[in-house]
Amino acid sequence: MNYSQTALDFLEKGQLDDFEKNYKLALKNDTDEYLFSLAEELYSYGFSDHSKEIYEQLLKKYPDDDTLKVNLAELAIDADDDDKALEYLSFVSPDSDEYVSSLMVSADLYQTQGLIENSEQKLLEAQLLAPEEPAIWLALAEFYFSTRQFQKAIKYYIDLIKSGVTEMSAINLVERLGVAYAQTGKFEQAVGYLEQIKTINMNSDVKFELGFTYFNLKEYQQAIDVFEEIREDEPQYSSLYPYLADAYVEQNQVDKALITVQEGLANDQYNEQLWVKASEIAKQAGQMELVGEYLTKARETAPDDISILSRLSDWYVDNGKDDENIELLKPVADQEMFDAHLSYNLAMSLSHKGDIKGATTNFQIAERELDTDTKFLKDAIFFYRENGDRDKEIELLKQYLKVDPEDFEMQSMLDEELDY
Fold first, then answer.
1. What integer is the mean pLDDT of 228-256?
2. CA-only gyration radius of the chain, Å
3. What gap in Å lies between CA 148 and CA 370, rounded to an integer?
4. Tens digit of pLDDT for each residue in 23-77?
5. 142-171: per-residue pLDDT in tens?
């Protein structure tokens, strides 16, 4: 038996001291073929430094061996030594048998650097040189999948499956194809593939995609069954709770939906979108105080989220909490994110509190964008009417009737003002 095999035997037994002893003996005594195989095995075990040492030793002996350069480049990428990886790859010429492999490793390197276009270019060049190579199809499929270009990924996954390959490099291609279809909104196709996956091979992410697909196909009970299974196995999987809650709502089980989002918040209290979903379910359950409580929590969790700010402000206005609304909006009224809708809300609260000047300013700001919003126009009309600005009232009445000429009540109000 050679030292390389003995070293691997000790490694598998967890006897690291004996492994290291035989590994060093292998470096000195074993044939190059044994050492190359040992390097590959050690890499699969995660012993990258040992693999690197072997490849470097072999490269000194075989400086023209491009396989060694490509392998060392892969190890350099794993070690975040991008410059060294590029150096090794630069020595592999286009006429080398390993050039296609070097292109694929280059693609990995560029992707880790966030150079997505460069990565894609290298993979497409590899495909051009070896158009029938399944490993390149898989690399392209995974590249497009990871960069959320699912429609492009689908093509390559289908090509692989048509060629008879359903699993490659420990990747379940049927699963990938089902998820890709779900992400493109093609739920009928997605469910056909996702349902083929054996339960034992389904992790929580794949189960979620199946539940998500059932939900979008309006098969709510099946969605509930899948989401509940994930919740039982992995209660910290916070993405499931909004969909499970919505599925309960669709089944007219609003109380169950509210309990569901509350369970989700117990597991993930820093998820602002979960707080927002909780507020929506609480509103459907008629628990209006809870709505405000949950939106306040969402605002605390994501203070820069304009949509949450707007939701909370709406709740304050709808529930007559003008002091709270003014306190919420005034500190941010001069910020870029402050939009016409928020100016409208602030105008309403300031009006209710008797700040006519402040309300007028904010009605004027809001009008620039909301001059076709009949609800805004009606509130503004009554504001100006109540505060004696007849000219502005008439101007907005005319504008309102351009938008809704069939509103006879507002037409009557305009006629009354013009006849005055």
1. 95
2. 32
3. 36
4. 999 899 999 999 999 999 999 999 999 999 999 999 999 999 999 999 999 999 9
5. 999 999 999 999 999 999 999 998 889 889
Q: In terms of C-beta density within 10 A (0-12 exposed, 13-18 middle, 19 or more buried), how is residue 297 classed?
A: buried
The angle, 0 to 180 degrees and rounded to 10, between the axes of the packed helices 173-183 and 134-146 is: 40
Place of tokens 């628990």: 287
Q: What whole-number distance in Å separates Cα of residue 175 and Cα of residue 116?
A: 24
10: Cβ contacts below 8 Å, ≥ 6 apart: 16, 18, 19, 22
Q: For residue 157, give the DSSP letter.
A: H
Is the Cβ–Cβ distance between 377 and 403 less than 8 Å? yes
Residue (of 115, 111, 170, 106) closest to 145 by Cα position: 111
Question: Which pLDDT band holds residue 353 (cuts at 50, 70, 90)?
Answer: very high
Q: Are strands 167-168 and 171-172 parallel, antiparallel or unpaired?
A: antiparallel
DSSP string, 289-331: HHHHHHHHHHHHH-TT-HHHHHHHHHHHHHTT-HHHHHHHHGG
Question: Rounded to whole angstroms, how far apart are CA atoms 175 and 300?
Answer: 38
Q: Which helix (H) or strand (E) holds 168?
A: strand 167-168
pLDDT of residue 202: 85
Element (H, E) at 52: helix 48-61
